[in-house]
């Protein structure tokens, strides 16, 4: 086991592993225990009481974080020529169609999100083997397959994220940066949690929110007290 640095030891001592913290406390603590020299991401892991193997318990959706993610999201817009200017004006980093499809077929995936249109999905669908494993495949449910290309690009650039429960029933999401104020971290976290609460499947019985943990890149996890969050 790797030895902890002096700063990591100090950070570890600030967390009581047997305690669940209120959301605002956790949002403050995660800043205190972040010891990286770069601006670490703040992540939220939420275990849900669902069985993802059942189609009617697959929880997925999108949420617009009020303060964004703090990341510079690189967006590729795969669109027809008549939509290119709209995508560029909205802030897309790369805009085109056939040339970029060839680049992706050649292995290029230096992007975070792809926005496209229903009318070109036949072409984009061929890229499933490359994009699927990387989580880059556009999807109507996440708002990335739409005729309103400009709006979709703007939302993604401003902090709209999509999420999907994994095979263990856990939602993993990046909700900001350690440089954010504790208030911004808490508000972003609460927005995701409230969105998940609205998506509870009717067939999910018993406890829905099993556990919530907040952490930053390379930090320990901080358990969140579900009772500290109103409305769930």
Q: Can you offer a commentary on this structure?
A:
31% of the residues lie in helices and 20% in strands. The chain has helices at 6-13, 23-32, 81-90, 98-105, 121-124, 128-131, 149-158, 182-198; strands spanning 41-48, 60-64, 75-78, 94-96, 113-116, 160-164, 170-177, 209-216, 222-223. A 4-stranded antiparallel sheet has the order 7-1-8-9, with helices on one face. The chain has a 3-stranded parallel sheet with strand order 4-3-5, with helices on both faces. Helix 3 links the parallel strand 3 and strand 4 (94-96). Helix 2 crosses helix 8 (182-198) and helix 3 packs parallel to helix 7 (149-158). It is globular and about 55 Å long. The model has no long low-confidence stretch (mean pLDDT 92).
Task: Spell out the blueprint of helices and strands.
Elements lengths: L5 H8 L9 H10 L8 E8 L11 E5 L10 E4 L2 H10 L3 E3 L1 H8 L7 E4 L4 H4 L3 H4 L17 H10 L1 E5 L5 E8 L4 H17 L10 E8 L5 E2 L9
Parallel strand pairs: 3-4, 3-5
Antiparallel strand pairs: 1-7, 1-8, 2-6, 8-9
Explain briefly what this protein structure is.
With 232 residues, this protein is α/β, with parallel strands linked by helices.
Total beta strands: 9
Backbone CA Rg: 19 Å
User: Strand portion, in percent?
Assistant: 15-25%
Tell the overall outline.
Answer: globular
Report how far the terminal alpha carbons are from each other.
39 Å
Unreliable stretches: none
Helix content: 25-40%
Write down the overall mean pLDDT.
Answer: 92
The largest β sheet comes out as:
4 strands, antiparallel
Secondary structure category: alpha/beta
Give helix and strand order, one letter per element, not per position: HHEEEHEHEHHHEEHEE
Describe the strand arrangement of the main beta sheet, using strand numbers: 7-1-8-9
In DSSP terms (H or I, runs of 4 or more residues), the helix count works out at 8
């Amino acid at each position: 086991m790797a030895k902890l640095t002096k700063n990591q030891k100090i950070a570890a001592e600030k967390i009581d592993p047997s305690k669940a913290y209120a959301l605002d406390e956790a949002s403050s603590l995660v800043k205190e225990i972040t010891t990286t020299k770069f601006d670490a991401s703040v992540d939220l892991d939420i275990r849900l009481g669902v069985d993802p193997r059942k189609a009617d318990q697959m929880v997925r959706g999108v949420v617009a974080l009020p303060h964004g993610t703090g990341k510079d999201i690189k967006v590729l817009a795969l669109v027809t020529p008549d939509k290119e200017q709209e995508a560029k004006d909205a802030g897309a980093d790369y805009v085109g169609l056939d040339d970029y499809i060839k680049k992706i077929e050649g292995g290029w995936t230096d992007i975070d999100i792809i926005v496209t249109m229903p009318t070109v999905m036949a072409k984009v669908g061929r890229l499933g083997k490359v994009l699927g494993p990387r989580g880059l495949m556009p999807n109507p449910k996440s708002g990335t397959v739409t005729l309103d290309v400009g709006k979709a690009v703007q939302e993604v650039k401003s902090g709209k994220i999509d999420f999907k429960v994994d095979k263990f029933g856990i939602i993993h999401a990046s909700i900001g940066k350690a440089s954010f104020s504790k208030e911004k971290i808490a508000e972003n976290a609460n927005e995701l949690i409230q969105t998940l609460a609205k998506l509870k499947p009717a067939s999910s019985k018993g406890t829905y929110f099993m556990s919530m943990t907040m952490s930053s890149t390379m930090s320990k996890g901080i358990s969140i007290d579900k009772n500290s969050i109103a409305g769930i």
